[in-house]
Request: fold
Amino acid sequence: MTSMDAVDQAILRRLQHDGRQTNRELAEEVGVAPSTALERTRALRARGVITGFHAAVDLEALGRGVQALISIRIRPQSREAIESVRDHMAALPETLGVFVVTGAEDVLVHVAVPSTQYLHDFVLDRLARRKEFVDVRTTVVFDYVPAVEQSELPAPERRGRRSRYA
Reply:
């Protein structure tokens, strides 16, 4: 885990809101010299805090306005089977994200598709037929609000006893 000061956090917030701004604009917004902004940004990348810059996409504008979460149970319950399913699902163009999870299901897949009919066909024709899938459940997403920014979490409050997270 890496600790960030107020300048690093401000740079990170600004870049998450607009990763295409110039270094000069970033420095002005954060209130530091352009050389400081550039050095700090490079350091955040070198430390692995910033892992890349990406274009935010409006899925509705791409004709993929229906999102769903698909829960999948897999048998046999093995590393190879789960990793194979994870990698296969991640490679599908409909997939936004894949999570290997605990609980009743093994994998949770976030997809975006053009319509509920497309989703229906996708689940029945491309997923339910896989022999290692013993249960597939689909939940349609009514609303999705992605987090705009990520940063360090605040230190936990101390109330008379030591926190195990400190």
User: Anything to note?
Assistant: The first helix runs from residue 6 to 17. The longest strand covers residues 66-74.
